Structure to design on (254 residues):
């Protein structure tokens, strides 16, 4: 069965503008264009749109989706199984958040008591899920499932005060990084201070710290544009400067 762009948009719950944009960026081309100039979509295009929307729901950006689904090794059935697992994880996260809200509502009415740790369970799972959606594939390939799973377990065990410490460390890293960057010297006292702050920050997530792993993460900040943009958001070049400072701090040569 074939669909015009209007019918497909209505069926999929997206706008015709979205479908035209997908055509423009060459992620979803119509099967053909009819004599009246209308885009016509067939079953193959519908299946691809389904995959795109699944990945979008999981927070994957369009550039990455295009890379995945246009790969010669792309397996649609395997991808659907993977979507199912991710959606089940997302449902578990939502269930935890709902339970968290229910407990908090009951707490406000004096029906139950609730520890500070319980209040943050759902939010910790959200942090884990967001990290997995953004970086999971890369960091699991670069390191190992065992290491990443151990890190996730450590996050789940964090207390409210530890969360506050992590947030403050992240703020301090950006503040000192900006000051150190202005010196232009990654070996300066300020630059080495930010490298040490970064080590402290990592130690909240890692079960064990190693200079080699620290240096590897720093290199990834330069190699992966998503990490680069995070540290370069105020001043371009800060991610590379941080990498250099950490390499000096760890005595590494990646």
């Amino acid at each position: 069965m074939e669909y015009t762009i209007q019918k497909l948009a209505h069926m999929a719950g997206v706008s015709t503008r979205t479908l035209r944009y997908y055509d423009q960026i060459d992620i979803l081309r119509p099967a053909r264009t009819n004599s009246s100039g209308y885009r016509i979509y067939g079953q193959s295009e519908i299946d691809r749109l389904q995959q795109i929307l699944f990945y979008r729901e999981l927070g994957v950006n369009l550039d990455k989706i295009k890379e995945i689904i246009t790969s010669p090794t792309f397996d649609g059935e395997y991808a659907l199984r993977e979507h199912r697992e991710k959606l089940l994880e997302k449902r578990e996260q939502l269930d935890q958040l709902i339970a968290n809200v229910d407990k908090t509502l009951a707490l406000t009415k004096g029906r139950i008591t609730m520890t500070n740790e319980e209040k943050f369970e759902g939010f910790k799972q959200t942090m884990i899920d967001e990290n997995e959606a953004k970086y999971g594939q890369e960091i699991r390939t670069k390191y190992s499932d065992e290491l990443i799973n151990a890190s996730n377990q450590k996050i789940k065990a964090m207390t409210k005060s530890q969360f506050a410490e992590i947030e403050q460390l992240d703020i301090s890293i950006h503040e000192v990084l900006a000051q150190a960057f202005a010196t232009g010297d990654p070996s300066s006292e300020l630059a080495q201070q930010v490298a040490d702050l970064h080590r402290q920050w990592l130690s909240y997530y890692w079960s064990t710290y190693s200079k080699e792993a620290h240096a590897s993460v720093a290199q990834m900040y330069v190699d992966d544009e998503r990490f680069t943009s995070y540290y370069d958001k105020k001043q371009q070049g800060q991610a590379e400067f941080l990498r250099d400072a950490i390499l000096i701090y760890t005595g590494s040569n990646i």
